[in-house]
Amino acid sequence: MIRLLPSVPESIHDFRSNPWPCQKTLVTPRKNMRSFLSTLLTVFPIEQGTASTDQVVFEPDNLMDLLKGHEVIIENRWSFCIEASKAEDVSALLDTMLNDWIDFVFVPSPAAFAIYADHDEYLTIYTPTTQQLNHLIDRLELEGFSFIGDYMRPSEGAIWR
Fold first, then answer.
1. pLDDT at 156
2. Where does residue 92 rank: exposed (0-12), middle (13-18), buried (19+ CB within 10 A)?
3. What gap in Å lies between CA 83 and CA 73, rounded to an integer?
């Protein structure tokens, strides 16, 4: 199930105010998104996830199609918060938002990782521990994904850039 939330949940506020210390960034893998999301959601199985926008630069046409297919009506295409239940809906939501060049934070439940993605095609994965991050990096690198050296995403303020 995919649904629009009336406000940003506490999990997103908590993450924004105190992001986890361990992070790694890669170029958003648009051409191999299915493999990327499958690996991510295998390493960190989740029950649901919430995405909250920072900025929508281009018309989110793919997202509008996804929402329409789930009978979700969205009035403000530029600022919204969406929750997805079930792994397949989470995967579909992430795939769509990443392919629509939306700046957003994603926090799943259970909260083993978080994502910040931007319209410049960078995707940062956060974890609470180095061990969790290294495990994910190892699995993604085995699948052929590579990360951007020592890049650290600044995480201050209401909008991250």
1. 57
2. middle
3. 14
